[in-house]
Amino acid sequence: MPTTTTSTAETSARETTARPRTRASRRRARGPVRTAIAIVLLALLLFPVYWMLNISLQPSGNALSGTFFPAHPSLDGYRSAVADQGGHLLISLLVASGTVVVTLVVAAPCAYALAQFRFRWISWALLAILISQMIPGIVIANALYTAYERLGLLDSVPGLIIANSANAIPFGILIMRSFMLGVPPSIVEAARVDGAGLVRAFLSIVVPISRNSLITVGLFAFLFAWSDFVFALTLTTKGQVVPVTLGIYTYLGAHIANWSAVMATAVLASIPAIVLLVVAQRYIAAGATGGAVK
Question: Quick one: a GO cellular component term (predicted)?
Fold first, then answer.
């Protein structure tokens, strides 16, 4: 009888030891399969980007007859794009940079006030910010058109900056507020005791601590303004101020037979966004999740 009990215990121990090994072996077997699936999905997602770059280097400029790989790459499309769309790229860069400045200047103090001050109306203010995010951009653009016509802001860079900032500020407030909720009030109070005013304490203490969220909001504000098409189409009627998105739209009608120039313009318009995303990747991850864990 004791021998039977011992053998049963040994068998149970072997089964218990074998189960983790079986699970580990299954996970190892699934690893290459998951990697292969991820590579296929990544290739599918990046194929439009590759095809855009490929067509931009095709000598013929025809998207339908272009080869899968440019055997004899040509830079004629980029020369045409720089000559025709270089000014539009600079306008978009100016509008996007101004949008980042205005968004951070307005959203950062508002986010800190909503995070640190305790008032009954703060919940209603957050609800109003969320509702403003739900309004379609075309509705805002039509409303701004009438106001801009009276104020003389149509076909102007400041008008586009204000419009894009109005779209980015609510998003920036929500992102930075979730991060600034974790800023200890004691360090701000210590700066106040040392003689710093509210503005100086905010700039010297809160802003450096919230660097990740500021970079995240600034980057998204830049991308919002850089890729904007609705405001550019609605608030620029005379063709004096043309961002690159509207330039590509009008470029299609004039160069429908020369797709290399169109795709070259699209490649040049994608470079700033790609560079900023690569450079600020770690700040984006920290800023977007900083307020999620206390």
Answer: plasma membrane
Q: What is the DSSP letter of 241?
A: S
In this structure, what are the phi and psi dihedrals at residue 45, rounded to the nearest 5 degrees? Answer: -70, -35
What tens digit of pLDDT does each residue of 256-271 get? 667 788 888 889 988 8
Q: How many CB atoms lie within 10 A of CB 113?
A: 16
* Distance (Å) of CA 114 to CA 66, 246, 285: 55, 37, 23
| Rounded CA separation 27/18 (Å) | 14
Can you state the percent helix, strand and coil of the chain, rounding each to 5? 80, 0, 20
Q: Are 261 and 200 in contact (CB under 8 A)?
A: no
Using the structure block, give the residue that is written with the tokens 């407030």: 173
Give the pLDDT band of residue 105 (cuts 50, 70, 90). very high
Of residues 135, 80, 93, the one with CA closest to residue 255? 80
5-50 confidence digits (pLDDT tens): 555 555 554 555 555 556 666 666 667 788 889 899 988 988 888 8
Dihedral sign for Cα atoms in the order 17, 20, 24, 25: positive
- Domain definitions of the chain by residue range: 1-56, 76-289
